[in-house]
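Progress note, project year one: complex with zinc ion.
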Amino acid sequence: MSKKLLSFPLHELKMIRVRCKNPKCRGAVLEVPIEKVGCFYNSSTCPVCREDLGFGVSEPNWLNMLGKALAGLQVAADRVEVEVMLPEDNLPEAE
Ligand SMILES: [Zn+2]
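Model obtained:
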């Protein structure tokens, strides 16, 4: 039996929520508009506690790359449509 899925087009995504897991940051959460993710995470440090996010010297800055990819795909939405799909049983409870 197939699972029900919730899907939405990527161009409808407006913000992402990023939680820093560094203990010094005490779980600080930033809600960042898609078009500003690359700018907020231009360096691989947390904008709140300034600690390194631990991507390592040989890894890309994943958050910066995510921001660029999301913004770029939104600009290209007239040429390619990407949908985010979530299985219904993984959805958070409504508040
Ligand atoms: Zn932090």
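Residues 21-82 form one domain.
Residues 20, 22, 25, 28, 46, 48-49, 51 surround zinc ion (CB under 6 Å).
No further modelling is planned for this target in the current period.
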